[in-house]
Queue: 2 jobs
Job 1
Amino acid sequence: MIFCVCVILAFFARVGDFCIPTQQVVTTSSSTTTTTTTTTTTTTTTTTPPPELSCITTDWTLINRGSYSWCIRVYWGYANYLNVDSVCATLHADAVRSGFLNASEIATASSIALAERNYNQRLFVGADRISSCYYQPLNAVCSGTTAFGWTDGVTSGTDGFVWAVGQPDNLLYNSGTGFSQIWATMSTMTALMDDIGDDDAVQGALCGMKADYY
Ligand SMILES: [Ca+2]
């Protein structure tokens, strides 16, 4: 019996051999993968703003005068005709007595001074009587806009000559001493100017120097 089963199985096994194709076709599926690499280059351009003009320290106040910037600061200390031209240099070597471009600037200077000393003080400013007006009283030729000239080397125009009523009066000359009132001062409480001579002393000076790229 076992023999018969084996024969039958062997018979079918042979028949199966005949059913298998002699050549098998193998289909290979092939795919192509395209990889695209995109390189993005980001260029970051940092724009550095141009340096701004400023004052050398925060003790100075920046004033924009259009084509240049000016810094002002009050020198506090006894000042008269002997040291009038040197006190500002004690703040900075480039500092000189400051003039005024207009009434706004003398108001600014007054505010700065009052913030430091809240009572009226007189300060030398950057204006001296011009030589042709020495010994001259206030008149049409030597007036508030013509008797004095700015001494700081940068201030121009006459809008900054903001005198108190009746000034510059050349008081000593008018009182008969013969001394001319050469130096201009400002009063911090009134923001008005006055001329004084070598008989007088004040509490300081308004100093100025050009702003720079610090
Ligand atoms: Ca005067």
Note: DSSP finds three helices and eight strands in the chain.
Job 2
Amino acid sequence: MVCIMSGTRSKLALFLCGCYVVALGAHTGEECVARHHEAESYVAAVYEHPSILSPNPLALTSRQQALELMNQNLDIYEQQVMTAAQKGVQIMVFPEDGIHGFNFTRTSIYPFLDFMPSPQVVRWNPCLEPHRFNDTEVLQRLSCMAIKGDMFLVANLGTKQPCHINDPGCPDDGRYQFNTDVVFSSNGTLVDRYRKHNLYFEAAFDVPLQVDHTTFDTPFAGRFGVFTCFDILFFSPAVRLLRDYEVKHVVYPTAWMNQLPLLAAIEIQKAFAVAFGVNVLAANVHHPVLGMTGSGIHTPLKSFWYHDMENPNGRLIIAQVAKNPVGLIDAENATGEMDPSHSKCVHFIEEGAKGWKESLCRRLKTESQQQSEPGIPTPRPMHTTPWISLDVANLIVSNESWKSLQQRSQTACKRRHGRMCVIRPSNILRVLMEDRPRPKDRSYQERGFNSI
Ligand SMILES: *[C@@H]1O[C@H](CO)[C@@H](O)[C@H](O)[C@H]1NC(C)=O
Ligand SMILES: *[C@@H]1O[C@H](CO)[C@@H](O)[C@H](O)[C@H]1NC(C)=O
Ligand SMILES: *[C@@H]1O[C@H](CO)[C@@H](O)[C@H](O)[C@H]1NC(C)=O
Ligand SMILES: *[C@@H]1O[C@H](CO)[C@@H](O)[C@H](O)[C@H]1NC(C)=O
Ligand SMILES: *[C@@H]1O[C@H](CO)[C@@H](O)[C@H](O)[C@H]1NC(C)=O
């Protein structure tokens, strides 16, 4: 389901044009050619998908009808996998809601759900063992794609899990319904799943009783962590994965509506990579009419990204990324002495991020020195790109940036909404750093998240 609701509600548009132009990320250059030989890096892909949506997600359909719709999206996935495979891609990420869509009710989504056994309990290759479980058609197709493309594949789907009435969390209809990311290894084995914890107004889904801290190991780049969309703004599981599980790469399916000034997709993804020193492989759906665009492969120093509010087409982004994102040690020696913004930064994150605040601040400084390097996105006019080039990380180190951002956002807001915005600088980082339960949606909004 959609993460960030925009202030204006636009009519749903379907992009049913037969031509899904496959274009490689404009910023990738020749970097994705020679790869297997370079042990220090791997080749990743994310696909921003203009998903084919159900014309009426509230209507009740049959499993057969649901599969027909989902297979149209899966056909496109498969084409993208084959294109990526030719470029030597080793891991590929697809967006949240990309197969089934969004805006369902608990009942209307049911025909779209696959049954999902726990990968911790059952070792299963859906492509090679299709008859082992019923209602697993989507998992089977994804598993077969991983085999065909000879790559790790990460995708998002709705899953169902029957529960017993004695289970205190069991919903009245006798099943859990989860917004689920799945990970297949290159031989099609279902290696893990992540069930979204921080749901964003998703009536169709349940929050799992325990938070999944999902990681998976790859032969080419070590350990990856998984979380979804809105999760990126909360301590658990996102920050905990990095702190406790030694994750160096994050795969991040999302269905994100951009919202000024601080909740633009690219901005958040990039800020997360910079602030935590990890690689983030982020795949969004592409529905400009709904404000949904913005995917990228983000390293702490560089971003390969796609954001287009005018083009109806999706985009396959391929990039070569370091196995070990530039370490904090390197950043440490590369930076000179402290500048005034450093102490401000330390002060700001004192409460939340004790263990690594020093490293974080150094990294932020290093990043800001890298601004002019090719590959770092450059700002575009606000009316075409509601993305602010100053990322969240930079915001907290620079009062000047904050002030100019505020001015620019005010102008943009007035143009868009005809009124002033309430902007509170520290909300995002404060929430991210806090290790406590997510506030109820209402108080969350009161704290300024949906303030424009
Ligand atoms: C989702 O549903 C809400 C109302 O429930 C509606 O305003 C919105 O336009 C819908 N969005 C899509 C993409 O169908
Ligand atoms: C799948 O469903 C069919 C028909 O309902 C049933 O006969 C079969 O036992 C089921 N198989 C499994 C593995 O549950
Ligand atoms: C398939 O991949 C999984 C995960 O990488 C691995 O554990 C397993 O051994 C592989 N199976 C075969 C038959 O290669
Ligand atoms: C950074 O500097 C320290 C102290 O001078 C040194 O011990 C360390 O090896 C250096 N690290 C790197 C990665 O150069
Ligand atoms: C930012 O600068 C203004 C004056 O230029 C000052 O009043 C304010 O306290 C500063 N904010 C922070 C967070 O340092």
Note: The first strand starts at residue 41 and ends at 48.
